[in-house]
Design brief:
Helices cover 37% and strands 14% of the residues. With 421 residues, the protein is an alpha/beta fold. The strands form three sheets. It has a seven-stranded mixed β-sheet, sandwiched between helices. The chain has a four-stranded mixed β-sheet with strand order 1-2-3-13. The structure holds pyridoxal-5'-phosphate. The site of pyridoxal-5'-phosphate (PLP) has 15 residues, from helix 4.
């Protein structure tokens, strides 16, 4: 496989962009080598600048549930270009998107749009603190909630891959406002509340974790978080930036039947454009400025391009609920019959092949994975035209554009790796 042009571009990029990339997860740091510079995408495929074609399981890290350049999304974008790309004033489309989100995710009685998942979680935390008058936040090891200062504690994938434990630049006092506990263990949450209950504003959790690799909740775990937070007057925040509209139209909270106080969204709701959203109980959202005292703003929030792409995506999903069955079927095929010594975790169209005998239920068990072997697997698959995340600690994503043949080819490429001497 020829990579001359990617190599030349990477050389150039490193001179003007830190590490040559605009987000660390795009670097092949953990596995070595040159990241592929992408020329275009179409359906399930990525084409790089050297003309190599890949079956894409990164899907822009989650947003591309319908694959690259879905016609309905592209048409919606074309329409917006005829009227203007930003007004800094309210538009009807923003109401439509908020109404559709509320319809799909009933716990989100009111919704505020922002520009990224990071902004959504940051704003949800500020709101939780403003509403409860408390300062402490509980998060879970291996969960990533964006690069928010006081959430960059034991934050999974990107930092784990680079072996960064505590980010330089985050004041110790910020990190001290965060209690990081192991995922999938309700007892330690109970203990933390016994010790600090009246100071804890919120528990924030990825209901199905994607950011230490895919790790679903054990039976009863999310129910326990709901019960404990309610008992102590703390808010339960589901960070569904990755799982929202991916696991089901109503997200993980629909599947597990839990009603969080606040929810954050991103990724899929922008149809591939930058967006985020937070929402939840109307009495809590009433505290957000201008209706309340918790300040949060954004020059490009509710941007017409992002809102229209997202709206087109969600309307398509609403009209085609069978998409979720197809995603589930194809993902099941992809994850069937893992070789001995390997653990495959899957929730709907999110999956991770962990190079460990498992089970993988939290960060302690995830990090037992053989990352050197994963690196060899990653490069092998890349050479066979299959684009996976360069880190072991990421979820892969199947999209509606993946064909049965894509899946078969991927499984064959993986089998060939495991048959190597
Ligand atoms: C991706 C992600 C974020 C951050 O979203 P950005 O748009 O990258 O800022 C937050 N939470 C979860 C669960 C995510 O997967």
């Amino acid at each position: 496989m020829k990579t001359d042009r990617s190599e030349a571009l990477f050389e150039r990029a490193r001179k003007v962009i830190p590490g040559g990339v605009n987000s660390p997860v795009r670097a092949f740091r953990g596995v070595g080598g040159t990241p592929r510079f992408i020329r275009c995408g179409e359906g399930s495929r990525l084409i790089d600048e050297d003309g190599n074609s890949y079956i894409d399981y990164v899907g822009s890290w989650g947003p591309l549930l319908l694959g690259h350049r879905h016609p309905q999304v592209i048409d919606a974008l074309r329409e917006v270009l005829e009227v203007g790309t930003s007004f800094g004033a309210p538009t009807e489309r923003e109401i439509e998107l908020a109404e559709l989100i509320r319809q799909a995710v009933p716990s989100m009685e009111m919704v505020r749009l922002v520009n990224s998942g990071t902004e959504a979680t940051m704003s949800a935390l500020r709101l939780a603190r403003g509403y409860t008058g408390r300062e402490l936040i509980i998060k879970f090891e291996g969960c990533y909630h964006g690069h928010v200062d006081n959430l960059l504690v034991k934050a999974g994938s990107g930092m784990a891959t680079l072996a960064i434990s505590d980010t330089v630049g985050v004041p110790a006092s910020f990190a001290a406002a965060t209690i990081a506990l192991p995922f999938n263990n309700a007892d330690v949450v109970e203990q933390a509340f016994r010790a600090h209950g009246s100071d804890i504003a919120a528990v924030i959790v990825e209901p199905v974790v994607g950011n230490m690799g895919c790790v679903p909740p054990l039976p009863g775990y999310l129910e326990a978080l709901r019960e404990i937070t309610a008992r102590h007057g703390a808010l339960l925040i589901f960070d569904e930036v990755m799982t929202g509209f991916r696991l089901a139209f109503g997200g993980a909270q629909q599947i597990y039947g839990i009603r969080p106080d606040l929810t954050t969204l991103g990724k899929v709701i922008g149809g591939g454009l930058p967006i985020g959203a937070y929402g939840g109980r109307a009495d809590i959202l009433a505290k957000v400025a201008p209706s309340g005292p918790v300040y949060q703003a954004g020059t490009l929030s509710g941007n017409p391009l992002a809102v229209s792409a997202g709206l087109a995506m969600l309307l398509y999903l609403q009209a085609h609920p069978e998409v979720y069955n197809q995603l589930d079927r194809r993902s099941a095929e992809l994850c069937a019959d893992p070789p001995a010594g390997m653990t495959v975790n899957r929730a709907g169209s999110m999956f991770t092949f962990f190079f460990t005998a498992g089970p993988v239920v939290d960060w302690e068990t995830a990090k037992k994975a053989d990352t050197a072997r994963y690196a060899r697997f990653f490069h092998w698959m890349l050479e066979q035209g299959v684009y996976l995340a360069p880190s072991q600690f990421e979820a892969g994503f199947v999209s509606a554009a993946h064909t049965g043949e894509d899946i078969t080819r991927t499984v064959e490429a993986a089998r060939a790796f495991f048959a190597l001497p």
